[in-house]
Amino acid sequence: QPASTFYDAVGGAETFRALTARFYEEVERDEILRRLYPEEDLGPAERRMRMFLEQYWGGPRTYSDERGHPRLRMRHSPFVIGPFERDAWLRAMHTALASIDSATMDDEHRRQFVDYIEMAAQSMVNSPI
Ligand code: HEM
């Protein structure tokens, strides 16, 4: 019997925790990305990202319980996001994704996730440069 949500199918909380932890490790050491994040401690930002992704993919709805409607484009408006920032963000996410093994996330789910992040990252661009 197939798992009912993407969230369950790829291993649930454990997988989303690993993915976002790896993503923020990349943010920490990326010159373009690190300076964009206003807080010294990336822990709270990591948690918001994790809750958002879990909710988006059919997991717990903690993100909206705490933050309300995502309104992600609006929440990104304080940050200048041009093609370089988009590409740096996507690079970090691809690195994080590559750290999830294929037994945990098969090609079909991986493809779905990649399609989503590429669309979502493009939609967050708010500057031509
Ligand atoms: C928040 C950068 C794309 C999801 C943030 C923050 C920054 C940032 C600087 C503030 C950190 C904080 O939470 O305190 C970027 C850049 C992107 C990008 C440079 C490049 C395109 C995306 C995408 C998604 C996303 C594609 C979703 C798929 C989030 C979420 C938050 C956030 C959920 C927290 C929102 C909240 O306050 O509740 N991002 N982001 N971001 N970002 Fe992004």
Q: Count of helices?
A: 8
Question: Which regions contain 5 or more consecutive residues with pLDDT less than 50?
Answer: none
How many beta strands in the DSSP annotation? 0
Please give the share of residues in helix.
55-70%
Structural class: mainly alpha
Q: What does the model show?
A:
This protein has 129 residues and is mainly alpha-helical. The chain has a single domain (7-123), classed as Orthogonal Bundle (Globin-like). 64% of the residues lie in helices and 0% in strands. The protein has 8 helices and no strands. The chain has helices at 6-9, 12-29, 31-34, 43-56, 62-67, 72-75, 83-98, 107-123. Helix 2 packs across helix 4 (43-56) and helix 7 (83-98) runs antiparallel to helix 8. The longest helix is centred in the N-terminal third of the chain and has 18 residues, at 12-29. The protein is globular and about 45 Å long. The mean pLDDT is 97. It binds protoporphyrin IX containing FE. Protoporphyrin IX containing FE (HEM) is lined by residues 36-37, 39, 45, 48-49, 52, 67, 72, 75-76, 79, 81, 85-86, 89, 120-121, 124. Residues 36-37, 39, 45, 48-49, 52, 67, 72, 75-76, 79, 81, 85-86, 89, 120-121, 124 line the site of protoporphyrin IX containing FE (HEM).
